[in-house]
Structures are given as C-alpha cells and as structure tokens.
Design a protein that fits this description.
Layout (H helix, E strand, L loop, with lengths): L8 E7 L11 E7 L3 H10 L6 E4 L5 E3 L4 E7 L7 E4 L3 E5 L4 H10 L2 E2 L11 H7 L2 E2 L2 E2 L4 E7 L5 E5 L17 E8 L1 E2 L2 H18 L5 E5 L9 H7 L6 E2 L2 E3 L6 E4 L5 H19 L8 E3 L4
Helix pairs in contact: 2-4
C-alpha cells in the first residue's frame, strides 16, 4: 500500500492493545498521529478511497479484534488535546481532549453544565460521534457545533441538529474524524462545579470497576430497562470465558482478568446477549464498538 506524506507520525503494524482499555487485540495496519487539521485533511484527501480509516480516542468503549485493524487508524494526540473557554459560556475543544480536561477547564472558567463529561471515559472526538452521556445528560444537550474531516479530506463544521443524534448514535459516516467541538454551558461558581464533579467521581468509583481492564458500559439501555438489571436477572454476574469476566461489581461491564483475548471478551458478550434474550425476551445492543478482523 502506498500512503501519502504526513507531517505527523505514521507507524506500520502498530500494536493497539496498549492503547485500549481492555489491553487486548491486534495491531493497526498503519497508525497515523497527525500534526494538524490541515495535515490530516491532506492525508485523507490523497489516500486511496478503498483504504479504510478509523479514529481512535482513549480506547475505552472498544474491542479491537485479535486479527487487527486494516487500513489507517487515526489517533489525535497533543495537537488536538486542548479546551479553551470563550465568551458566552462556550468552550472550544480539540478532538483529542479528554472529558476530564474539558470539564476541568470549564470549571476554571466558571462554566457549569459540563460536569458530566468528567465521567465519560473518552475523548471529544469519540463522545461527539457517539452522543456520549452519563448521569442524565448527553452531548446533544451541550454541543453547539463540531468540525469534522470527511473520508475524502473535506473539512466541515456541523451544527448539533446536523448530527441527527439519537441514543448513543450520530449520523457521522465511517472514516469521518471529529477534530473539534464547541460546547455551551452556563454561569456557575467553580466551587459548585467542583462539588458536582466530585459527586460524579465518587458515584462512579462506588459503582463501577474503574481500576480494572474493562471497556466501560457494554450494552445500551433498552427502552424501559437498565441493561445491568437484565444481565443480572439472566444470571450472568461473574460469568467467565477464559480470562474474560462479567464484572461482579457492575454487570454491564466486561473485564479482562489477565490475558483474555479479544475473541474471548466478544464471545462472552454474545453469550450474555443470548442469556438475556432467553430470560427476558429483550435483545441487548452493543454499546462498545467492535472493530477489526477476527483471528
């Protein structure tokens, strides 16, 4: 495969397991860490149209299959890890900024309403794409606009309505990379914002296996149900397959107890879906993205 030039870093055969929360899975055929929006735009413009492109954030809600990811995986690094407060209680954030960075910088500027982003274990690019949310709020509630680079290298700025958000979903096509987003909050005292962030952090620590190798929330909440309750009722709490386990602390989380393969983690999730379907009649939908080639 002949690839375009880049001012960033392009690594063939780059291991992805160290970059994802599950610490499992195969390599990227190529890993691109672009230097700027213009760099990424030019690279995608000149990249052959049949080469697949996938954006990678913090690797939280992701299973990378053991055969790896074909094509180019784009990881937005330091040039995209910013969050700058402005007038009108707006904060402009790079696609590589974490939810913790966004909410902390908003706090320092006296911008409330973005505290929930602290609890989303990902980057702006990922949770804008997926309409990430927690504790009763979601990105659709606070997003003003997002700048994206399409697979053909075209740069566009989209309003929140253009993304046609639904639960944990947007209309962004495969290969589209979110490089910047603008969020709107409201006036608030930094101390009150910090208190809310502390409350959210404590609630997560108490209920979720945050110190484990996990992928975060595994299944979407079906209409009228909590996914964890359906999994629990189906007798799946603590269920294992190899080194993969359904968390005993929060059974909508899958864990890698040691050396689980991506195949074991995904197969365990499918077993849970089968058991829930048999017990309750409800078909759980994956919230975790599963990418790459099975081995």
């Amino acid at each position: 495969m002949t690839l375009p030039d880049t001012a960033g870093r392009l690594t063939p055969g780059a291991p992805l397991a160290p970059l994802v929360w599950f610490k499992a899975g195969g390599p990227a055929e190529y890993l691109l860490e672009p230097k700027s929006v213009d760099d990424l735009s030019a690279f995608l413009r000149d990249l052959a149209s049949d080469v697949p492109v996938m954006a990678l954030g913090l690797g939280s809600n992701l299973i990378v299959r053991d055969g790896g990811v074909p094509g180019v995986v784009v990881r937005l690094g330091k040039p995209f890890a910013y969050a700058r407060a402005g007038e009108g209680y707006l904060i402009t954030c790079g696609g590589g900024a974490s939810g913790i960075l966004v909410s902390s910088n908003a706090r320092d500027a006296g911008i409330g309403g973005l505290e929930f982003l602290r609890s989303i274990p990902g980057t702006v690019g990922g949770f804008v794409r997926m309409n990430g949310g927690a504790y009763g709020r979601e990105v659709a509630d606070v997003l003003v606009c997002a700048t994206v680079i399409r697979r053909d290298g075209t740069v566009e700025t989209l309003g929140v309505a253009d993304l046609e958000y639904t639960y944990r979903h947007s209309n962004l096509s495969d290969g589209t990379v979110v490089v910047e987003a603008v969020f709107r909050g409201h006036a608030a005292e930094p101390a009150a914002i910090q208190a809310e962030m502390d409350r959210i952090a404590a609630a997560r620590e108490a209920s979720q296996p945050l110190r484990s190798k996990t992928g975060g929330s595994t299944f979407k909440n079906p209409e009228g149900h909590k996914a964890w309750a359906l999994v629990d009722a189906a007798g799946c709490r603590g269920l294992t397959r190899g080194d993969a386990q359904v968390s005993e602390k929060h059974c909508n989380f899958l864990l890698n107890l040691g050396n689980a393969t991506a195949a074991e983690i995904e197969a365990l999730g499918e077993e849970v879906r089968d058991k829930v379907k048999a017990q309750s009649g409800v078909t759980l939908e994956w919230e975790i993205q599963r990418v790459g080639i099975a081995k």
